Amino acid sequence: MVSFRRRLAGVFVAALVATACGGSDGPAQRPDGALSGSLTVLAASSLTEAFDEIGRRFEAANRDVDVTFGYDASSTLAQQVVNGAPADVLATADEVTMQEAAAGGAVDAPALFTRNRLAILVRAGNPENVGRLADLARPGLVVVLCAEQVPCGRFSFTVLERAGVRVRPMSLEPNVKGVVSKVMLGEADAGIAYATDALDAGQAVEAVVIPDAQNVVAAYPIAVVRSAPNRAAATALVDYVRSPAGQAVLESFGFQPA
Amino acid sequence: MTARVRATTAGVPVAAVAVAALGALFFLVPLAGLVWRAPWSGLLDELGDPDVREALRLSLVCSLGATALSLVVGVPLAWVLARGRFPGRRLLRALTTLPMVLPPVVGGVALLLAFGRRGLAGQWLDQWFGVRLPFTTAGAILAETFVAMPFLVLTAEAGFRSADERLEEAARTLGARPWTVFRRVTLPLVTPSLAAGAVLAWARALGEFGATITFAGNFPGETQTTPLKVYLLLESRPDAAIVLSLVLLAVSLAVLVGLRSRWLGSA
Fold first, then answer.
1. How many domains does chain B divide into?
2. Do A187 and B118 touch (CB under 8 A)?
3. pLDDT in tens, A12-56
4. What counts of helices (H) and strands (E) characterise chain B?
5. How many angstroms away from the CA of A113 is the closest CA of chain B?
6. Residue A248 burial by CB count (10 A; 0-12/13-18/19+): exposed, middle or buried?
7. Does the complex come out with an ipTM higher than 0.85?
8. Of A60, A65, A55, A48, which is closest to residue A1 (Cα–Cα)?
9. Residue range A2-115+219-257 in CATH 3.40.50.300
10. DSSP-derived 3-state class of residue A30
11. Which residues does chain A have within 8 Å of residue B231's beta carbon, measured at their own beta carbons?
12. Is A235 on the interface with B (CB under 8 A)?
């Protein structure tokens, strides 16, 4: 439920912030060098929990900065940035999507800041006894995957292909949180999502490890948006995410160092 | 009827006309935006895509199914709401309009909790009849019905209310049985409202996205209706998404304009 609310919020964040920045609330670096103003970060859905925590810490360290996050599928966010959404920072779950934004000149040079792996998500207690990718092809097992158009789907299909497993998914979800919620609500027996999603979903789901030989490691790039309304704070946030402190937060949510 | 109709805004103050024009622009400009960005040269190629045609076909099936289901269940509901006198009637009316204010995605989650495999009613459907609604076309129809039916119920209820009960009374006095009264007197009186309600419900069902993707999921040929396809195409092929949106708009506009002149009096 929370992720739905956040998704909806993400759509409006850009518009709201555009209004906010138009007024006297505009970003400014005060004479003493402290950062201020509002900062809009568009980030891949899988970063939701980790970036919320990073945002809290960044705000605590920069009391005059107000960070707002918009979470959605990376490709959606990249589209929004290319189409001039007034965001300051873009973080995607794959390099292909970021390159699309970078190629159009919408963002500065991106930097890889973290990595994530795929895992099989099952209901708590693993009632269907799913132990490996091949089990996903079992008849009668309800499997949901991400759609091929979004990074998690692209990775999922690569992983399945590598393992030589043919799965007939019941649904191709438009973002990774769709897979998580279908497994969490018990509608699907299994799904493929990021290893971090299993951690975020808490008690209701658990992860079955996909061996490294079959797995795909997703590298996450982050970049300052070229037309960022608050460039100073954007640069500071990117630096914070890549600092040991930011990396520690990411690792506590199941991400791996870049 | 005169052959030539002169444009007139007789009786409407100029200020109101000016605001009306603003309102019209508000609808027109986003549409113009779509038309402006549409890749007209590649239009036919996009429409030839079997996936796109499949999504359009499924949209028609689901939206018509949802309209039919809404009529079957919604008309008696509207009738009872308009004529019945019983405690809790206001609550019932509020309940039937709930899906209009509920964010569709939340509606989808509610449907999952009710009719999902482990849902309140769904677990019995599964155990007793082996019926599973999520991830099926029937599930997509159910999700669309949930969101669209209030439009039919509200419109039909207004129709039942405005129908002159004295005419029904007269028929009964003349010895007509309740069913005959409904068929010969009430139904003809409320037909325009039912038609208007059905069209509104159909249009709402056709554009349904949130409840469908949450409850029924997204799979080509099963549950991937046009709005879902458009959403995914936006991720990979925005041009195709715009074409498909325009097709959806054209189809619904044609039906709405056609039905408006046919059923709702003057066009």
1. 1
2. yes
3. 444 444 444 433 344 445 555 678 899 999 999 889 999 999 999
4. 13, 0
5. 23
6. exposed
7. no
8. A48
9. no
10. coil
11. 174
12. no
